[in-house]
Amino acid sequence: MIGDIIGYIVIGAIIGAVARLALPGKQAIGWAATIIIGIIGAFIGGMIVSALSDKDHNIIAFIVSVIVAAVGVSLYAGMQARRVGGSSAGGLSGSSRTR
Asked: Which of 10, 17, 49, 52 is buried most, with the most CB atoms less than 10 Å from its CB?
């Protein structure tokens, strides 16, 4: 069970990082948001592939997961960029410095 959770976090981090690399420009989000969005993207991508196919398609699930996570990273980065006031140190920024 603990091994599975650690595995999901690692895979989520990889998917989140690949999603951030796939997007042009710099995203103003931290490592914690990247991991969480990656985990959510992996879950949703896996669900989409399993709903559309009865076979195990790991590569297709990975690609769909990266696409879903890229959309999530883009949406979250856009929300962070539009946020007015307050400190950027809170939330899921993964950073303790203020801007």
From this structure: 49
